[in-house]
Amino acid sequence: MSNIIYIGYEFKVTPLQPAVEILIAELGYAGFESFVETEQGVTAYIQKDEWHADILDDIQILGSDEFEINYEFSEIEQTNWNAEWEKNFNPIVVDDVCAVRAPFHDKFDTEYDIIIEPKMSFGTGHHETTHMMIQHILKNDFKGKSVLDMGCGTGVLAILAEMKGAQPLDAVDYDNWCYLNSLENVERNNCEHITVIEGDASVLAGKKYDVIIANINRNILLQDLKTYASCLNEEGTIFLSGFYNDDIPIIQEACEKQALKFEEKLERNNWVALKFIN
């Protein structure tokens, strides 16, 4: 990777949230592949070969009147990505039960200890949505259940589900970096029942699951919810996150159209994670 040249964008954002999270999501779809949150906003990186002068034209939040976002960019060579992540990745403990840490952190005295090398993937547990999905998994029975982790990022949710006794499990992400990172993390945590798949909802044809975990942005959830519902076994459970409290009505309406019944909501800093049953 040392010969790959990157373009780095320094975004200064006011107010920071939820603008930074929205900006990261939109930049991800535009091809940016790594992000480091800063005190003033976020630094985003894209390979020079993938960059073009109009790369930010479809980033809708840049035109929003709710936030002030300024940026500058420059060419960057030979970035040590692991060093960048090590500077910015602190371990977390969820509900005193589950620790999510990097290999260079000391082990915690918790029931579940997950080692994640996050690199450029989403899903270290720090974001509100991942944190709440971990809480949902901790609170619910996964023993012997088949599980889909859709938009798996680092694979952290599938890994925890296996630790709680789930099998078999599919961890799916359309992003090649996330796919490769999940493979590494699955092996690092000695998981034996997780199949990591590169792709989108189209790879789910003919598959069935007892539990579906989907921590993706609102528009993708709405687009693919019918597919998820068709893959859910009778009396199955689906956990959804990646959206805000204000988005609940449209999400709930879409779920009810698929005969999914609302059961529980978790909320953290205006982000929510919902549980529905079939």
Description:
27% of the residues lie in helices and 33% in strands. By secondary structure, the chain is α/β, with parallel strands linked by helices. It folds into 2 domains: 75 residues, Alpha-Beta Plaits (2-Layer Sandwich); 150 residues, 3-Layer(aba) Sandwich (Rossmann fold). The strands form 3 sheets. Strands 10-9-8-11-12-14-13 form a 7-stranded mixed beta sheet, sandwiched between helices. The longest helix is centred in the middle third of the chain and has 13 residues. The relative contact order is 0.11.
Largest sheet: 7 strands, mixed
By CATH, the architecture of the largest domain is named 3-Layer(aba) Sandwich
The gross shape turns out to be globular
Order of helices and strands: EHEEEHEEEHEHEHEEHEHEE
> How would you classify the helix and strand content by structural class?
alpha/beta
- Beginning-to-end CA distance, first to last residue: 45 Å
Uncertain runs are none
Please tally the β strands and state the result: 14
Mean pLDDT, all residues: 90
**CATH homologous superfamily label of the largest domain:** Vaccinia Virus protein VP39
Query: The CATH topology of the largest domain, please?
Result: Rossmann fold
Oligomer: single chain
Number of domains: 2
**Spatial strand order of the main sheet:** 10-9-8-11-12-14-13
Overall CATH class of the largest domain: Alpha Beta
Helix content: 25-40%
Beta-strand portion reads: 25-35%
Summed up:
Helix content is 27%, strand content 33%. By secondary structure, the protein is of the alpha/beta class.
Task: Write the topology of this structure.
Blueprint: E1 5-14, H1 19-30, E2 34-37, E3 41-47, E4 68-77, H2 81-88, E5 92-94, E6 98-101, E7 112-115, H3 128-139, E8 147-150, H4 156-163, E9 169-173, H5 176-188, E10 194-198, E11 209-215, H6 218-230, E12 232-244, H7 248-257, E13 261-268, E14 271-277
Parallel strand pairs: 6-7, 8-9, 8-11, 9-10, 11-12
Antiparallel strand pairs: 1-3, 1-4, 2-3, 5-6, 12-14, 13-14
